[in-house]
Amino acid sequence: MEISNRMKMVFEESRKKAIAPPQTSFAYDIHYAALHLYSELPKWEKQARSMAYAVTNQEVFIEPYDKIIGRVYYRGEKRPEAYCSDFDFNTQPMLNAKKNDLAYDELCRYQIATYGAPGHIAWDWNVILRRGTDGLRERCVSGLNRHKGDNEAEHFYNGVMIMLDAIESWNEKHVQRLIEMGKTEEAEICRQVPKHPARTFREAIQSFYIQFITVMKEEPDGGNSPGRLDYYLWPFLENDIKNGVCTLEEAEELVEELFVRIDERLYYSDAWVESVVLGGSHPNGTSAVNPLSYIMVRAYMKYDITHPHVYIRIPKNAPEDFLDLAADYIINGRNRAQLLCDEAIIKALVKNGVSENDAVDYFCGGCMEVGIQGRTSDFLFTGYQNIAKLLELCMTGGYCLKKQTQLTYFKTKPLTECNDFEEFYTVFIKEAERVLTENLKYQDKLSEYVEHMRPAYLLSSMIDDCLTKGRNMHGGGARYHDYGSSLVGIPNAADALIAIKKAVFDDKICTAHELMKALSADFVGYEALHAKLLALPKYGQDIPEADEMAARIVTDMSRIYSSYVNRFGGSGKLVLLTFRYAPAAGAILGASADGRRAGAVIAQSITPQCASMTKGITAAMNSCTVLPFELFSGGASTMWDLDPSLATPEIVKGLFTTFFEQGGQIFQGNVTDVQELKSAQLNPEHYGHILVRVGGYSARFVNLSKDIQDDIINRLRHNG
């Protein structure tokens, strides 16, 4: 794939700026303004005007070769001399206050529950492309007329208009600089957008970009995503092609520049995961794959970049050549690919309360967290819970096998006091309900806190139904206000539970006391029992009894989440991924009843444990698709690492299409040479080019911690 001379220069200069960015003053300016310029204003107005001041006063960076205008940087920002307490971009004070709580301390310290932060959202930026900021301003004026006497609504609409003024003012600074540089074509484009509706593809991509980097200053969180980039931009390109304004080749170069610009800002932040989802479906269920879908995948594959993460939505009746492109992306995309099954994900969303018309607009907020573009609030990923550790503590009555300490928060009846398996399983589920509900209640408190500390006026203006209701997305404005959370270690828990059932209660291989002694000793001195436990059925071997145990767990856990009603009528939902937590979540675990040794890494999401996939990838996928995917409205990822010898286009295409036909939602994995990874570990200076799929995101292998590197090296590579 060839790169033009201009884009070679763009990429080279972008990489230099990414490595050594100029110092900027955004963070300094926002707190300076709040403390010195607007300190006497009401809190809502102080927040809006201080943010607008910082946006307006951002530096302008333009190079002679730029066609897409606008740059922002995070590294090297000038730090504030003092901080205004009316802002909280990462909810840290709230989290710090919670750390004084014994329950919170134990839950976090033992990896039972960690609390995430806001982010992982995609807004309806298409409204700016279609209406311009002028159109949004008109909607605010209309809202003020409808909500007279409603102070909160008045504050919200005025806050939005203050931010619209800011983005226009900053954009105008670019116009003036472009005129000074003699770049009249770019100046005219920036005069048109974002203030007015975009008329061409180039105006549309410019309008998208300037609003995107502005919103990312207002809400600088990981996982905030462009979403359906090809879907919303294609009508502009289609019209341009019809009118002879732009060719596909010219469009591809603009897409390349956009991707390079996004990566420039995030070069040292592989795990930030601003994701684009391509392809997908129209509201009527037909394929939305268009020429821009192909362009964007191919443009991304040309460059040594990790942002934006480019994922492919596979619609029902997808074009055959699009499936071929997806297979090629898995094999040759340098481990950056992720494929999503529209039919399975949309089905789960609709079953869990999302309208069909909205469900078709789903996106990945970060790694794979499924939300609705322009309609979901930003608590899509609120942390993770180590369900395998919770099971251990239920077995021991709250005693940590790894740290050999008794926890105060857990006082359950231990396995040794249970008369049968069903009694123990009931103890486990009841404890899970107590712990997980506590986590959801805390998210309600966090949401209430964020409503007032981070109103996100510009972002909220592009979330339905904030402008209709006159409320920000955490004040009741978002159409869907659900809390997504990930249970890690489900395959581990399933294997351990089936082992307990078989070994202790059904086959009488050992008593509960003997099992607990063996686990406490990490099987030292219990080698015969260890061998018997390893030989028991496992999830991933296509054995119904084991697979049904995994399905039972996720069904009960989903019920716990979906039955919770939060402050705006939303619920909890499972977002099943492991991210980079596999080594850390495993490190806190003692030995497990299935024969797993203490400290060993846990499985990736709902993918069977590597040690359990003894019958090949087909059997493992059969086990996985027994799970009730229709319950996973937040998305359920799987990781299928392949030996390069297996990764032919025909085999890879057959694997993911079969997996999706059986009901699977998300397919990803590495195609790597293990020996090369081991060499990279020893001589990192020579292997900076290697990218790997970690657990929902792709990163440079040499930049990962050793425990994550070891996890990736030691994963099973399917070869038949």
Can you tag this structure with a few keywords?
alpha/beta; 14 strands; 3-stranded parallel beta sheet; 720 residues
Structure description:
The chain is an alpha/beta fold and 720 residues long. Helix content is 50%, strand content 7%. The protein contains 29 helices and 14 strands. A hairpin with a 4-residue loop joins strand 7 and strand 8. The longest helix has 33 residues. The two termini are 31 Å apart.
Number of strands: 14
**Approximate shape:** globular
Percent strand: 5-15%
How far do the termini sit from each other? Answer: 31 Å
Give the low-pLDDT segments: none
Question: What oligomeric state is this?
Answer: single chain
Residue-averaged pLDDT: 95
Compute the CA-based radius of gyration.
Answer: 26 Å
Spatial arrangement of strands, main beta sheet: 1-2-3-12-11
The total count of helices amounts to 29
User: Major β-sheet, in short?
Assistant: 5 strands, mixed
- Alpha-beta classification: alpha/beta
The percent of residues in helical segments reads 40-55%
